[in-house]
Amino acid sequence: MKTSVKLLAALLLVTNFSFGQGIFQKIDSIIKDNHQKNPNVGISVGFVLNSEEYYTAYGNLNAESQIKIDKNSIFEIASITKILTSNLIAQAAIEKKLKLEDYIDSYLPKEYVLQNNLKNKIKISDLASHQSGLPDIDFGKLIELNPQQPISSVTKESLAAIVNNCTELKDYGKYRYSTIGYTLLGQILEKVYNKSYDEIITSKMIKPLKMTRTLTKDFNVKNCTVGHNPEGGIQEFFNWNITAPAGLVKSNASDMVTYLKAILNKEAKVGKAALITESIFYKDEKRELGLGINIVTDEKNTIYMKSGDSMGQSSIICYDRAKNWGIIILLNYRNSKMRQNMLNEIYETVLKNSELDKTDL
User: Fold this and answer.
1) Could you report the per-residue pLDDT of 279-304, keeping only the tens digit for each?
2) Whether this model's pTM surpasses 0.90
3) 10 Å Cβ neighbour count for 40?
4) Taking every annotated instance into account, which residue ranges of this chain make up the domain Beta-lactamase-related (predicted)?
5) 326 has which bridge partners?
6) Burial of 191 (0-12, 13-18, 19+ CB in 10 A)
7) Which of 14-18, 68-72, 183-187 has the lowest mean pLDDT?
8) CA atoms of 338 and 321, how far apart (whole Å)
9) What single-letter DSSP state applies at residue 327?
10) What string of H, E and C letters represents the secondary structure of 119-188?
């Protein structure tokens, strides 16, 4: 009897892996076709289905290198950092360090002094769902001043001035994408844990999940891709400084699949926090948002996604909790249209209508 059970389990494992390979062959075909149409763009993709991992990659680390991109090649994930930050906020809520509906006033560093009419108005969840109404950093102006490192001139003092000089939350309760909101979330985390953001994300996410190639400060490592702006010019990796919680992290397909597996696991600490971030905190006629993540629902599925674009790279992460799959797409060019089109094609032709059973083989 024991032998029969073991044999059945082994057969099921082989069948599931073969099934996953069949699904991923279709995904790989789409990625390969996109690379052939855009041969200058390096691509790395990781996919997880029922905890089985699959990877593909096309292109070289840079134009001068013959080293191929692989699952370990380092990319900027840029604003995908925000879902890591929101997960840390949810972990803090689970640990009762804060409540998501708390007002931000008492959690801010002493440099921040809200105008009287703005006190006890902005909640932590408002920051995380991009509806605080606070003014944001002027990225356009910063790019003009320093196109390679536009964030370099942003300081704790300049951020405090933006917040302190705000006299009215003109669009409070309405969606407006915010870098400063996530910077404040990082500072809130620093206050409740009495540690730096780097120490917090390292101790609560990077080390526990063994994301050994996920970087926060030192990017001078081997197997690092070279970024390119839309015109093909070389673009440096950003040094985010004080705004780190909004876009700092550099990672690879392998580590991001590790993260996807963790958030799809309801029993893991990161997974429990992810369930909180997936609750709807904002909704209008165009979008639904959790904490740092977009919620997209169709007639059959609910998927969660977040994109990231630096000046030289584009990325997107997406997962379906009910069907237990997740995908990360990383490009070494800033090309948001390409990465979105690839995800759309993969979803529409492979994942959307699939019941993820043997009929897809």
Assistant:
1) 999 999 999 999 999 999 998 899 99
2) yes
3) 13
4) 28-338
5) 48, 319
6) middle
7) 14-18
8) 25
9) E
10) CCCCEHHHHHCCCCCCCCCCHHHHHHHCCCCHHHHCCHHHHHHHHHCCCCCCCCCCCCCCHHHHHHHHHH
Instruction: Calculate the CA 17 to chain-centre distance.
Output: 27
* Residue that is written with structure tokens 């059945």 in the block: 8
Distance CA 85, CA 36 (A): 35
- Amino acid identity of residue 144, one-letter, is E
**Could you tell me the maximum CA-CA distance found in the chain, to the nearest angstrom?**
74
- The reported pLDDT for the residue numbered 217 is 81
Strands 325-331 and 282-283: unpaired
Q: What average pLDDT does the chain have?
A: 92
CA pair distance 181, 243, nearest whole angstrom: 10
Please state, in angstroms and rounded to a whole number, the distance separating the CA atoms of residues 301 and 41: 31
Please provide residue 326's backbone torsions phi and psi, each rounded to the nearest 5 degrees.
Answer: -155, 155
Cβ pair 26, 350 in contact under 8 A = yes
- Cα–Cα distance between 29 and 56 in angstroms, integer? 10
List domains and CATH numbers for the chain: 23-360 (3.40.710.10)
> What does residue 316 show for φ and ψ, rounded to 5 degrees?
-155, 140
Rounded distance between C-alpha atoms, residue 361 and residue 358, angstroms? 6
What is the C-alpha to C-alpha distance for residues 231 and 335, in angstroms, rounded to an integer? 10
Cα→Cα distances 173→113, 283, 311, Å: 21, 10, 29
242, two tokens: 């004080």
The contacts found for 281-289 with CB under 8 angstroms, 24 or more apart, are 281/125, 281/128, 281/129, 282/129, 282/130, 282/131, 282/175, 284/174, 284/175, 286/175, 287/175, 289/129, 289/130, 289/175
Cα four-point dihedral sign 151, 152, 154, 156: positive
Q: Which of 123-132, 164-173, 346-355 has the lowest mean pLDDT?
A: 346-355
